[in-house]
């Protein structure tokens, strides 16, 4: 599970081109932190888009009910007109910048050492924890901008741990 920040895609990734309406809207979306790797330099920056809506040819299902956008630039070009019931709008996406990675055997060693809590989870469970809590936003009345309700994911973590009996 990842945490949000009060930063937009444009702030995290100033190199993002705003060459159409879709990218302009996407650049104002709040992003989550996927991990510490690939945050600092534009050449190795990683942006992942997840959604609960399928768009054939543009998404692939990673777990039941959760889809990864295959190519965000291609999606932006295809959906630039922002119309139709099958169109993934920027607000349908949860964006994550950066990732976590492990060397061979490192993750298993961390699991064996008790650093991780493993639990089976359905797509519904992941969707409810990640999309319902972590990426929930409100419109800030003074600025009119979207800001996260739970900027550091504390409510999402508490909900997840409670449902796991921890």
Model description:
By secondary structure, this protein is of the alpha+beta class. It has one domain (3-100, 115-163). The protein is built from six helices and eight strands, in the order E-H-H-E-E-E-E-H-E-H-H-E-E-H. The protein has helices at 9-12, 21-26, 72-78, 106-112, 123-134, 154-163; strands at residues 3-8, 30-33, 47-51, 59-63, 66-69, 93-97, 137-139, 146-148. It has a six-stranded mixed beta sheet with strand order 1-2-6-3-5-4. A hairpin with a 2-residue loop joins strand 4 and strand 5.
Question: Summed up, what is this model?
Answer:
By secondary structure, this protein is an alpha+beta fold.
Radius of gyration based on Cα positions: 17 Å
Domains (count) = 1
Q: What share of residues are in beta strands?
A: 15-25%
Helices and strands: which structural class?
alpha+beta
Percentage of residues in helical conformation: 25-40%
Order of helices and strands: EHHEEEEHEHHEEH
